[in-house]
Write a structure and sequence with these properties.
This protein is α+β, with helices and mostly antiparallel strands. 29% of the residues lie in helices and 28% in strands. It has a single domain, classed as 7,8-Dihydro-6-hydroxymethylpterin-pyrophosphokinase HPPK (Alpha-Beta Plaits, 2-Layer Sandwich).
Length: 163
C-alpha cells in the first residue's frame, strides 16, 4: 500500500530533523518511493509563529494504518516532539495524508487527513508527487482539490527540488 506523509517543522534545524525522520520512517514504515520538494510555508491554524518547512513523502508499506500511526508517534517523540497545545510550534510533525484509497474514521486516527482538502501547504507538495491521486472521500484528484482551494492566506515558497 502507498502511504503519503506530510512532514512539518518550525523549531530547530528542520533540514537535519527531516533527514533523521526520513531514516526512521524508512526503518519503520517501508520503502521510500518518492518525495516532494521542500516548501517554506506560513503557519496554519495558529498563525502567530515561525513559518514551517514542509515536505510530502510517499512510502510503500505493508503496515496496517494503526501500526503506521504508532510508529510515527514514536518517531516524533524520539525527534523531540512535545504535544501541549494544538497547532503549536514543533520540532517535527508527521501527518498521514492518505493511505491509498483506505478510509479510517476512529477517534485517534482519521484517514484521509480531515484537513487535507483545506491545506494548500499539504496539497501543493502532494500534487508535485502525483496530482492525479484521487481523494477517497471527495472523489476528486489532488489537482482538482488544489484548484478549488480558496485559502490564499498562506505564502508557500518552494525551496528545493525533490532529491
Amino acid at each position: 500500500m502507498l502511504i503519503y506523509l506530510l512532514l512539518g517543522c518550525n523549531i530547530g534545524n528542520c533540514l537535519e530533523t527531516f533527514k533523521q525522520a526520513e531514516v526512521e520512517l524508512k526503518n519503520r514504515i517501508g520503502d521510500l518511493t518518492r518525495k516532494s520538494s521542500r516548501y517554506l510555508t506560513d503557519a496554519w491554524g495558529n498563525t502567530g509563529q515561525a513559518p514551517f518547512l514542509n515536505q510530502v513523502l510517499e512510502f510503500e508499506t505493508k503496515l496496517h494504518p494503526k501500526d503506521c500511526l504508532k510508529a510515527i508517534l514514536e518517531i516524533e517523540k524520539n525527534l523531540g516532539r512535545v504535544r501541549n497545545i494544538k497547532w503549536e510550534p514543533r520540532t517535527i510533525d508527521i501527518d498521514i495524508l492518505l493511505y491509498e484509497n483506505v478510509i479510517v474514521n476512529e477517534d485517534d486516527l482519521k484517514i484521509p487527513h480531515p484537513y487535507l482538502h483545506q491545506r494548500k501547504f499539504a496539497l501543493v507538495p502532494l500534487a508535485e508527487i502525483d496530482a492525479e491521486i484521487i481523494h477517497p472521500i471527495y472523489q476528486k484528484s489532488i489537482s482538482n482539490l488544489l484548484s478549488e482551494n480558496t485559502d490564499n492566506s498562506l505564502n508557500i515558497k518552494r525551496l528545493s527540488s525533490a532529491i
